Amino acid sequence: MASSEEERGRGGGRQSRRTRSQAAPDWTVHETLTLVSEIAAVEGECRKTVSSFQKWKIVAENCNALGVNRTLNQCRRKWDSLLSHYKRIKKWESSSSEELESYWSLDRETRRGLGFPEEFDSEVFKAIDNHLKDEDDGSDTETDRDNDPEALADEVDVLVPACSANLTPFVGHFVCYFLLMSFLLV
């Protein structure tokens, strides 16, 4: 029997515990690839001009519009988990020597014994890898907007239409307005 402390939420009210049948279903490979794609799109188009909450709200709304019915928190938790697994696998692969087998050739038991996820889709791994490489490449090419007014004008001309292209109309207009205002205030 659970203690009364475990059953109470922050507000002191009773919270029901979720059973596995009530929890969200596992993510399919298609849903996971959609999530990675939407994260890449939002981070690529809106860069660092929106807050973390706004970013995840946009990602969740875009995923829902594409048939991946998940909440903001589910999307964020899934991404955190994917990124953690990706980093562990990437580190193993990059430090792999002749003595160590590739993660991809290990059986489930060996993966589990080494603390890796038993299953991690190689297509998802590649999608995350491409997104992170694109993110790294983009950070090296940013210009100093304070010293280059033409670069600022070019960014506004490119970002505002591009940002609204993949977003729901209301969110797209809000994000683009926010981007425009942040550029004008610089």
TrEMBL record:
Renumbered residue ranges of the record's region Disordered: 1-24
Residue span(s) of domain Myb-like: 27-83
Compositional bias annotation for Basic and acidic residues: 1-10
Gene3D superfamilies linked: Homeodomain-like (1.10.10.60)
Coiled-coil intervals: none
PROSITE patterns from the UniProt entry: MYB_LIKE
InterPro entries named among the record's database cross-references: Myb_DNA-bind_4, SANT/Myb
PANTHER family: OS02G0174300 PROTEIN, OSJNBA0043A12.37 PROTEIN-RELATED
The name this protein goes by in its record: Sequence-specific DNA binding transcription factor
Species the sequence originates in: Actinidia rufa
Lineage, uppermost ranks: Eukaryota, Viridiplantae, Streptophyta, Embryophyta, Tracheophyta
